[in-house]
């Protein structure tokens, strides 16, 4: 298991946009499984939607992307790099995600080359698929 503290050492996201609570399983450069505990305290629920809170699809995609980023950047040769999402293909949303749900995200690296990667990511609540997408990354060591 990778704790939130170690996740913050791998990816640059911080509150309010760090959308992973922990990584339960990882094979660096191949696969990662991340967890997001969805609570009513998330800022996006204030406007999406008042009286009927639903986690926005774009936020689910971002959470899946962050898990994919951990899968790519966890390897020691990629530490210190920044991963940028440069494309999303075949995104599908199958079920609403609401406060109280635990979002389990599985990111499988399907292509990994020097500074470019593709990840097939899926999100589940109670073993039911709620979203899926291919996510394309560019990553580089930040020299700024």
Query: Major sheet, described briefly?
Result: 6 strands, antiparallel
Work out the helicity level: 10-25%
Order of helices and strands: HEEHEEEE
* Strand proportion: 35-45%
Identify the quaternary structure here.
single chain
The structural class is alpha+beta
By CATH, the superfamily comes out as Hotdog Thioesterase
The order of strands across the largest sheet is: 1-2-4-5-6-3
Count of helix runs: 2
CATH A-level architecture: Roll
- In round numbers, the mean pLDDT is 94
Return the CATH topology: Thiol Ester Dehydrase, Chain A
Supply Rg.
14 Å
The backbone outline, from C-alpha atoms, is globular
Q: Which class in CATH terms? A: Alpha Beta
Given as residue ranges, the uncertain stretches (5+ residues, pLDDT < 50) are none
In total, the number of domains comes to: 1
- Overall number of strands: 6
Describe the structure in your own words.
- The protein is of the alpha+beta class.
- It has one domain: Roll (Thiol Ester Dehydrase, Chain A).
- The chain has a six-stranded antiparallel β-sheet, covered by helices on one side.
- The longest helix has 17 residues.
In short:
The protein has helices at residues 4-10, 57-73; strands at residues 22-27, 31-37, 81-93, 102-113, 116-125, 128-141. The chain is α+β, with helices and mostly antiparallel strands and 144 residues long.
Give me some keywords for this one.
six-stranded antiparallel sheet, single chain, 6 strands, globular, Thiol Ester Dehydrase, Chain A, 144 residues, 2 helices, 43% strand, alpha+beta
